[in-house]
């Protein structure tokens, strides 16, 4: 599984966690996301730029390095925030408390086909319900299709 596919899985898990608690904020840490991420992206790769060098790690390598799990989590959450998918909780002001943005709500409400329902409903059904590898591939595909659909909505 490529670095991009792994990032899509992380993205999907994060959206699903925030969707489950919306409109309440969620404090996101590697402990919250990593077990599900590792299960779904099992043989995936991650690219990290750390101390001036970029390196590709296997997910199994990062299982033994909590500091890199923390770094990747911060990196992905920062990207999601900069791109407008997450907003900081305006009430708590804690650094890692997030809620869904209107952009994420629109993404979760996208209907990818007449028979599949919305992205949010599909993520809820897939994450935690079927085999690891198959679920990871489905989450990556769903998020990829949602990104493509969003591109069509942009002016």
Would you mind describing this structure in some detail?
By secondary structure, this protein is an alpha+beta fold. 57% of the residues lie in helices and 17% in strands. It contains seven helices and seven strands, in the order H-E-H-E-E-H-H-E-E-H-E-E-H-H. The strands form three sheets. It has a three-stranded antiparallel sheet with strand order 1-5-4. Strands 2-3 form a two-stranded antiparallel ribbon. Strands 6-7 form a two-stranded antiparallel ribbon. Helix 6 runs antiparallel to helix 7. The model has no long low-confidence stretch (mean pLDDT 75).
Helical run tally: 7
Portion of residues within helices: 55-70%
Q: Strands across the major sheet, in which order?
A: 1-5-4
The helix/strand series, from N terminus to C terminus, equals HEHEEHHEEHEEHH
Radius of gyration: 15 Å
Backbone shape = globular
Mean pLDDT: 75
In summary, what is this structure?
With 155 residues, this protein is of the alpha+beta class. The chain has seven helices and seven strands.
What would the keywords be for this entry?
155 residues, alpha+beta, 7 helices, 7 strands
Secondary structure topology:
Elements: H1 3-21, E1 26-27, H2 30-40, E2 45-50, E3 53-58, H3 59-62, H4 66-82, E4 86-88, E5 97-100, H5 102-108, E6 111-113, E7 117-118, H6 119-126, H7 132-153
Helix pairs in contact: 1-2, 1-7, 6-7
